[in-house]
Amino acid sequence: MQELKPNKKPIIIYWIIAMVLFMMVNGFMYKKFVNQQTEEVGYNVFMQMIDSKDIGEASIQDNQILFTNKAGTKTYKTGIVNDAELYERLYNSGATFGAEIIEQSNPIWSYIISFVIQIVLIVVAWRIISKLLLKKMGDSPDMMSFGTGGMGMGKSNARVYVKSDTGIKFKDVAGEEEAKDLLKEIVEYLHEPQKYTEIGAVLPKGALLVGPPGTGKTLLAKAVAGEANVPFFSISGSEFVQMFVGMGAAKVRDLFKQAKDKAPCIVFIDEIDAIGKKRDGQISSNDEREQTLNQLLTEMDGFEGNNGVVILAATNRPESLDPALLRPGRFDRRVPVELPDLKGRVDILKVHAKKVRCSDNVDFDGIAKAASGASGAQLANIVNEGALRAVREGRRSVTQADLMESVEVVIAGYQKKNKILSNKEKLVVAYHEVGHALVAAMQTQSAPVQKITIIPRTSGALGYTMQVEDGEHFLMTKTEILNKIATYTGGRAAEELIFSEITTGASNDIEQATKLARAMVSRYGMSEEFDMVALETLTNQYLGGDTSLACSAETQTKIDKMVVSVVTEQHEKAKKILQENIQKLHEISKYLYEHETITGEEFMNILSSEENTLLS
Ligand code: ADP
Ligand code: MG
Ligand code: ZN
Predict the structure, then answer these.
(1) Cα–Cα–Cα angle for 292, 295, 300, nearest 5°?
(2) Distance of CA 579 to the CA centre of its chain
(3) Exposure b/e, 169-201, CB count within 10 A at least 16 = b
(4) Given ligand 1 and candidates 177, 219, 222, 270, which is best to mutate, with the most ligand atoms within 8 Å of its CB?
(5) Is 433 assigned a catalytic role?
(6) Which single residue of 112, 140, 298, 557 has CA 20 to 30 Å from 62?
(7) Ligand 1 within 6 A of CB of 209
(8) pLDDT tens digit sequence for 78-119
(9) Could you tell me which CATH number the domain at 153-336 has?
(10) Nearest-CA neighbor of 216 among 385, 408, 407, 379?
């Protein structure tokens, strides 16, 4: 999307044109009023001119004689003298008699008129120039105020974007095919409205893009701007909410007024939850926001379906939006922009990899698998981190290893350079991580281990075990969840088994295991006692997934007990698995301690070779 380029012709040209015009008119005026004014001369001059036959026209009046020179370029006047032969002499000199010589205004008047005209000219010129200037300011994206006059208060700061060849297009947005299809239709409608009106289809007034952060909502809106041949107003919800009450509403009004003038066009309101929050009737509620929202609702109702103003909005908190905003006739289209699936991730990686120099053998599929659950923004970041790493290491192109490392950077932060762990601690971490990996490997329905590392990361992780699913999973079975919980407890189980002591290193594992166990009981209906009853509801789907309880205190107590029993059961299972494989636990942990990072392949090799020795 290219912001509208201000007209390159500089203001100075307008000034020069204005000055030249001004000087020309001024010169003309001077000639007319100063040079050409009637000159009062003595009678003797009149006589001399008659003698030299230099009189063009003459008019003898009661108390004066007006006359011009032969060429008629100058007017003179002189007094009446008792001169009997005047008529005859004038006649002989070839002058014509006329009454129509008009006495030109006297010098003072001409000066005043000339002065007034100059002032008028200056004012007119100033007006025209300032209008041009303001128009430019309005169109130019780096100037704040839109429109004219005032201090720009209450003016919407919406910027106009127009189609351009360098802008973002739909092809720059990878994955998200459904969202793209819905938006393409809107663009098409704006291009060829008659195709739709013929059938009687009405253009949806608004479309709401909802999804987690970084999934490309803003990017999609920019792509719409890039594809549409129509003006594109873009404003962020927070820009409406200002210090002064009433300003937000004024901004909304102004924005829509401008949009209607430019229709067909698209108005994009990013982060609409800033103004579109539910009106909850609390006394402490934000009056300003409410007024702004009301104005927005009014404006969205205020125009007819087919006048060509389409409103796009984006949010990652759809549940907090006012229901009035979501009813049909306002945002009647809801476009989900979800986290990308495996194919989507591969496509997004490829789109961004085009911008960097990649070596030929990069396996995007593998990276996309490792980056499961990553958003588009994170994937873009992964590619960029990979490129930075390549430069840091003095390579000329990005390799698979660069990208794999940057997946970890994005998930867990950078490697810590300084040795921060004592040897004892390092050993504990090694056993802990191998504990996770072994429990995972010994269960049938869990993802293969891809990598184990005990190099601390800036995120605070002292080490981690990376498991990568083979394909894409949309459902999780009960067994899979239980296995996952067992894997989480595997780290602590190894510590207990080997050191007969436990550490704080398992805090994140505990959190994750508890979350899963709790969801099993309260949301997935996976406990015998509660059957398919929702005891908790998700409140913040796209931002972290907070839940709120919806049950009595007794039930809550029961839930807690069940969660404890689920986790304990899996913890016991993990301990049992490790006990049975304690030989391998020792061997792999020793190897990991020495190498600090081992791949899934190395892990499996040690695991299977030992299995063979045990069998033989
Ligand atoms: P949000 O949904 O939070 O508005 P953005 O649209 O701002 O996310 O996305 C941030 C960045 O992430 C984009 O500028 C782009 O580089 C990258 N990105 C996100 N989704 C995609 C996608 N589907 N295809 C390509 N790049 C994407
Ligand atoms: Mg955004
Ligand atoms: Zn752990």
Answers:
(1) 125
(2) 54
(3) bbebbbbbeebbebbebbbebbeeeeeeeeeee
(4) 219
(5) yes
(6) 112
(7) no
(8) 887 777 777 777 788 777 776 565 555 556 776 777 778 888
(9) 3.40.50.300
(10) 379
Q: Looking only at Cα atoms, what is the longest distance across the chain? A: 157
Residue with CA at minimum distance from ligand 1 atom 25:
173
| pLDDT mean over 297-318 | 79
Domain at 342-412, CATH from 3.40.50.2000, 2.30.42.10, 3.40.50.150, 1.10.8.60: 1.10.8.60
Q: Report the C-alpha gap between 382 and 393 in whole angstroms.
A: 16
Pocket lining: 376 vs ligand 1, CB cutoff 6 Å: yes
State if residue 217 touches ligand 1 by the CB under 6 angstroms criterion: yes
pLDDT at residue 106, as a whole number: 58
For the chain, what percent of residues have pLDDT higher than 70?
84
439 C-alpha to center of ligand 3: Å? Answer: 12
Which residue in 456, 451, 425 sits closest to 437, CA to CA?
451
Q: What's the confidence (pLDDT) of residue 246?
A: 66
Q: What is the pLDDT of residues 161-216, one digit of tens each?
A: 554 444 788 888 998 888 899 888 888 888 888 888 888 887 778 889 999 999 99
The mean of the pLDDT values for the chain is 81
Nearest residue (by CA) to ligand 1, atom 12, is 377
Element (H, E) at 68: strand 64-69
pLDDT at 560: 94
Cβ 351 under 6 angstroms from ligand 1: yes
d(CA 93, CA 548): 115
Question: 152 CA distance to ligand 2 centroid (A)?
Answer: 26
Closest ligand by atom to 272 CA = 2
Strand locations in 187-254, DSSP E?
A: 206-210, 232-236
| Structural domain spans, the chain | 38-103, 153-336, 342-412, 423-607
Report the CATH fold assignment for 38-103: 3.30.720
pLDDT number for residue 282: 61
168 within ligand 1 shell (Cβ under 6 A): no
**Ligand lying nearest the CA atom of residue 505:** 3
Output the CA 389–ligand 1 centroid distance in Å: 22
| Cα of 473 from ligand 3 centre, angstroms | 23
Question: What is the pTM assigned to this prediction?
Answer: 0.69
Whole-number pLDDT of residue 373: 85
- CATH superfamily, domain 423-607, is Peptidase M41 (1.20.58.760)
- State the ligand closest to the CA atom of 461: 3
CA of 566 to the centre of ligand 3 (A): 18
Q: What is the mean pLDDT of residues 491-520?
A: 94
pLDDT for 392-441, tens place per residue? 999 999 999 999 999 988 887 888 777 678 899 999 999 999 999 999 99
| Ligand 1 neighbour 214 (Cβ under 6 A) | yes
